[in-house]
Amino acid sequence: MAPLTWFRRHLVVIFGLLTLGYLLLPNVVVTVFSFNDPAGRFNYAWNEFSTDAWSRPCGVDGLCASLALSLQLALWSTLAATVLGTMTAFALARYRFRARGAVNSLIFLPMAMPEVVMAASLLTLFLNMGARLGFWTVLIAHIMFCLSFVVTAVKARVMSMDPRLEQAAQDLYAGPAQTFLRVTLPIAWPGIAAGALLAFALSFDDFIITNFTAGSTVTFPMYVWGSAQRGTPVQINVVGTAMFLVAVLVVVVSMAVGNGRKRMKA
Amino acid sequence: MSSATLTGTPPPPPPATPAAARRTTPRRRRGRLTPYLLLLPGLLWLLVFFALPVIYQASTSVQTGSLEAGYEVTWRFATYTEALADYWPHFLRSVVYAGTATVLCLLLGYPLAYLIAFRAGRWRNLIMILVIAPFFTSFLIRTLAWKTILADGGVVVETLNTLHVLDVTAGLGLTDGERLLATPLAVVCGLTYNFLPFMILPLYTSLERIDPRLHEAAADLYARPATVFRRVTLPLSMPGVVAGTLLTFIPAGGDYVNADLLGSTDTRMIGNVIQVQFLRVLDYPTAAALSFILMAVILVVVSVHIRRSGTEDLV
Q: For B56, which residue in chain A has the nearest alpha carbon?
């Protein structure tokens, strides 16, 4: 085959892989620079190999405290958003009622709004109410923007569910509670899990809304933002690399579980 | 959106479409309060912490006063015209940067989405993981990594200098001398990078739904590959293109992180202005007016798009 023909046939693959490289390049840089021993306060230029940051991940002031706070926030907002969002999704997917379109819009709008607008308007609300900015105001904000994403994920799953399965359960004398717990919930579960995972990631990584509503509370993204002005410790890269590895692991495991289920069904 | 939706008024009888009739089982039709009870907590949360703040912000934007003396609603709409007069370059910059980043995302994202949907074979899951996984690493850390990649005297800058690319871009006003950092190009590059997954995922979803046999059929009818793409694949992937464009343009237009970390004072976007006005200058009426204008612009863009494609597709 002539090289030109080969090139043309694989054009999409070549460009696709180039894009993938563009997407992954920063992660490679973050990982490599987690082994750096920077010359100055900023970890932007390569100086010398060192595993110092990996051996002392909490070696800089405030980093691990901010990480713990972010984890705590992400857990609580995921829990709340998942419960509220799942309820809303069931109502939207299963029932026809008045103003359904308006409810749909109210759920869609937070996803269609730039974060800075939501952040600014929440701040005006909190200032007007005289609320003290801190953990609780951030938690309220995180639940608010995670909610829509959970609703979307769960709704899609519930909509695609075969209603005859529930009717069959009822025909077999299952009560409403039993039908819900033994049939409906297990089928909706992948949607709920996906929504919860998304909510966790969004809350854990949120910077813009947190920056407006946190006052002097420092979450991990706020810590990174602050360090971009003061000097970036190598430990930030260690945390970034670890997060990437954990994320890949979680996705691989969840995919493996999903595939296992499919095989069992087959 | 009004509170009337939350009251226990009986819902209208379900529409007579077969789909709706199938979904509403007889037992459920009797429990008329159930949907409202299920909706109540989530909807209340969104009303109080999403809709109400927007109203507060609207009222703040027409107030006058000072931090010390307090604010009062005086219906001063001049705040809006003044804000627009002072900050129209930032609005323009936001639209241009976000628009460019969106186009770049589409050009970069489409081949990758296509690759995952049709050409990846057994590598599909792996590539999918590699697209999603960066999402879970703090985006601030990843954006900071671009400071290293685009650094003065780094590999990228040196290569582009040797090829005299930077001379051309500097002539166009995209870069500054022999630098990449602190230039519009760096900001657009960061924006493109940050929002690329938001383009790829909807594109992939709509491409994956296309039956590959349609391609074969078109090829059987003597369509050349380019024609197959133009007449079959691209039209069928339009829902993904629309959703991806929105999901990229909206957050990019309101972003201030990339402009702050990778840009300079000359690349400030409207997000930067809103942030500084709200958190440092503490000029709340101006900040609220700016944020309200941004919201209006975005709402117009979104509703035009939705009118074309329908909400249920996006929600």
A: A125
Q: Compute the nearest-CA separation of B268 from chain A (Å).
A: 14
CA dist B154 → B122, B142, B151, B157 (Å): 36, 17, 5, 5
Tokens coding B40:
């109540």
B226 in contact with chain A, both atoms CB, cutoff 8 A? no
With an 8 Å Cβ cutoff, are B138 and A243 in contact? yes
For B186-231, the pLDDT digits (tens) are 999 999 999 999 999 999 999 999 998 998 899 899 988 889 999 9
Is residue B303 within 8 Å of residue A113, measured between CB atoms?
A: no
The residue-averaged pLDDT of B113-135 equals 89
Instruction: Assess whether pLDDT exceeds 50 at residue B240.
Output: yes
Q: Is the pLDDT of residue B288 over 80?
A: yes
**Does the pLDDT at position B311 exceed 60?**
no
Query: Residues A169-188: pLDDT tens digits?
Result: 888 988 888 888 998 899 99
Positions in chain A short of pLDDT 70:
1, 261-266
Burial class (CB in 10 A: 0-12, 13-18, 19+), A52: middle
Q: What are the structural domains of chain B?
A: 3-73 (no CATH), 78-314 (1.10.3720.10)
* CATH architecture observed for domain A67-232: Orthogonal Bundle (1.10)
CA-nearest of B127, B102, B126 to B114 is: B127
B114 contacts on A by Cβ (under 8 Å): 12, 16
Split at pLDDT 50, 70, 90, the class of B19 is very low
Residue of B nearest to A117 (CA): B291
Chain B: give the shortest CA distance to residue A57, in Å: 16
Q: What is the pTM of this model?
A: 0.86
Q: Write out the DSSP string of B146-203.
A: HHHHT-TTSHHHHHHHHTTHHHHHHHTTSSBTTB-TTSHHHHHHHHHHHHHHHHHHHH
Chain A environment of B294 (Cβ under 8 Å): 114, 116-117
The DSSP bridge partners found for residue A36 are A49
Question: Domain residues of chain A, as ranges?
Answer: 67-232
Assess contact for B287 and B274: CB atoms under 8 A: yes
